[in-house]
Fold these 3 entries.
Entry 1:
Amino acid sequence: MDIAEPSGLTGASKAEALAATRTGVIAPPAENVGSLQAWPVGLALLCLGSLSTAIVGSGAGWRTVLLLWTGAGLGLALYHAAYGFAAGYRVFLGSGYSAHVRAQIVMLAVAVALFYPALSAGSVLGQPVRGFIFPIGLELAAGAFIFGIGMQIAGGCGSGTLYTVGGGSVRMVVTLLFFIVGATGAAWSWEGWSGLPRLPAVSLAGSIGFAGAVAVQLAVLAALWWLVARRERMLTGGVASIWRRGQLRTRPATLLLGPWPYGWAALALAGLAFLTLVLAGRPWGITQAFALWGSWAVERGGFDDPHFWPYWEEPTRVDLLPRAALADVTTLMNIGVALGALAAAGLAGAFRPRWRLTAGELSSSVIGGLLLGFGAIMATGCNISALFGGVASGSLHGWVWLVAALAGSFVGIRLRPVFGLDDRRASL
């Protein structure tokens, strides 16, 4: 998907969009990007319908079908707003524009407000729910740091890789393949690095109570909003809105056809992530499925027997390898995200894969994908399960992940010119 210079924008929004173009962000399609493409929409709906039928036939249950379609909703929201963690960090660290980052802060704040009462009650509508509360240690910090480097080199994070693949990015298909290879390699070598020093998991709710944890989290997020907005104002002379995009009119068709302001996506992602918690009983996750897919490939190819890898012998994972693909919620949600993005690209008239890749783009996807996969498994997740799920669950490990990933992003941004990504209008 080539990145065109955005049109129809003025003021801070135009400056933000131009900065995003130079740094390799997929800009949301403009109002006149093209006519609706029926076949990507039809293909996405056909696949979603067929999978839904297969799920029902397998006996997996209606919750699993709803989770597939929840993934599709997430993919549509991510695509229509070009909502990328990697791109957001890159633009903020490089140019000061913070709309992506402030939208993520809104998303986290809404998720905290939604998740905490449910987690405090322990169930929603009879469905037991739990958060992601993980230990804090060197493997978490090292994994997030590696992930941060990888997402800047590769051009996408966990969710970003999935939705750009669905949106027609050939380069990100390569990234996804090597994301899977890296995650599988981390699972295979787990015994060699899983013993790194660590501290016990820290739950804010368990330490200061749910009310106190909500207050602290929201106060930290409000402070972060103020700091990043202040930096943007100092560097650019203004603060771009996350609730509108230039002169684009808010109209009913925008919800379906796009583009969305970042703020819309923040609310949609928080709401759909909460729906995931209610339906699945735990927060939204992405990257463990990549290690699972790679391990299935290793087993079916006769290269090794992953059932004897210590990673898959852990009590929390021991039942995953024997599970059918249609019964694995994370797998189905990942497929849903890609199909939702495919439908969104068709609705926006923007599904135009670019098949030729430069040597720099190809090598960055290979190396970046490997780093993404290995780092995500080390860090117990990516920007979704570790950061989003961790912060929404009140776990301190989510904040540690963020700091380490930002440090890795800082390094990764400086490595991008090695691959020629910032010497031209790179495409994702």
Note: Residues 12-17+34-243+253-419 form one domain.
Entry 2:
Amino acid sequence: MEINFEHLAGLVITIIIVIGGGIYSARSVKSAEGYSLGGRSSGPALIAGSIAGTAIGGGATVGTAQLAYSLGLSAWWFTLGSGIALILMGLFYARPLRRTGLETIPQYLVLNYGPNAGPLASVISSIGIFISAVASCLPGIQIIAAIFNLQSWGAAIVLIVLIAAYVFFGGMKSAGVSGIMKMLIIWVTLVIAGVSALLALQEMPNLSAVFPPFPWFSLFGHGIWAGLGNLGSLIIGIVCTQTYIQAVFSASDSRTAAAGAFVAALIIIPVGLPSIAIGMYMHAMQPDILPILVLPIYLLKYQPAWLGGVGLAGILLSIIGSIAGLALGIGTMVSRDICSELLHIKRSKTILQINRITTLLVMLLASFVAIINLNSQVLTWNYMSMALRGAGIFLPLTLAIFAPGKLSKGCAVLSMALSTAASIAGVTVFHLPIDPLYIGILVSAAIIMLGLVMKCKETGSLSPRG
């Protein structure tokens, strides 16, 4: 990618303003709760900024353009599914979770299924969230390497420094403030660039020959089951993701929590469409480029220099914010559910330090895994992440919210462990041609159904005879 001084100026100034705003907002963060939950005083805008700032990362921008370059409209599933998931979260999950006054999903599961559920849920969630962080590191490293002509390791170091500045000092408050600013930048630049690409596509005389209606203009261009599987992965994965639930827990009250989820959905659903138009346009104009660089090359080559620089900064900030929010979710679970609950570390400043150190370690490890998988599809990692983080937790969490006390503690823990193990084994050991989400949900449902039947029989045998 060729970048001139005007590009570079727009890029650097935008990043400094956004990250600087987040660091400035961090000056009031003094405690572990202030770091992870922003003092439980967030309004709808800050909640939406935290959620959208994490959800709109490498997958929603670069990954969507990358897949649209090959398949067209079916690349929309990632942002469309994320928005649907957040609407469901706002309707059914946000209020009851916020009313508990807790901080993590594992804490809620412990409340319903006993102390063994907490560490297990933390490990399961952390694995899934970590895979998503890898997905965002992939385009971040590639773009930084291409812009500044760096090797992968050098680009990874730059990325980690930017992520640390974004979230390390202020936690959830920094992520929320920076997320709002980032969304404004992405919306303005992507809409302008996307409309430009769409108009150019409409003017192509051979549009129908280059892009036949199927698969290019079908949501199921990759297959009906693949599309539905992606949608299911996103709904289940997002509902079970600590980072998004953490934003809900940070709300000032339960109604505000639901409103924040709805606002985030309205932001996220349409943001994939400009990237799709750009990906398809680049397929027609430059069919031989590296797909992961489709979006940044379009901004630099086909848009005014100022817009290209600011837009490229928006992409990098979307990647940085996504990794930062995901790493913060893991850091919060490790510090609260493992160090505080299992190791009995209660001092607020110590928990705060553990959270920050864990967040930094997650960034380092995710960058390392991304470097050794640089040529993989971004959205493949994202969908696998959603399936793994939700397959084991979704059904027990849902029952805990809507039917508390119906499922026994032992059955819930067994369901979480075996369904997650089945999902991982299906992908890595047996290489089954089935979405890992389906594998995990089927195993989880079978164990839960068996547990519910056994509990009903046990209750019936203990009830007095008439």
Note: The domain at 5-390 is CATH 1.20.1730.10 (Sodium/glucose cotransporter).
Entry 3:
Amino acid sequence: MKLKITTIGNSAGVILPKELLARLRLEKGDELLALETPDGIRLTVYDPALAEQMEVAEKIMREDRLVLHKLAQ
């Protein structure tokens, strides 16, 4: 489904059609989490526990970048 970025006040946003909201089981006011994957960006329903785990993982990856790089070789 092709989406268009539009101006919303002083920001930019994407309008999700009703059909897509229904398929995703989302409503106005729900929060989404954007995850960067090898295939692009994945939008998923915001889960505070998952968001906290992702923050911890990102911190570890930043702090131990060299060690993780060596392990990957």
Note: The first strand starts at residue 5 and ends at 8.
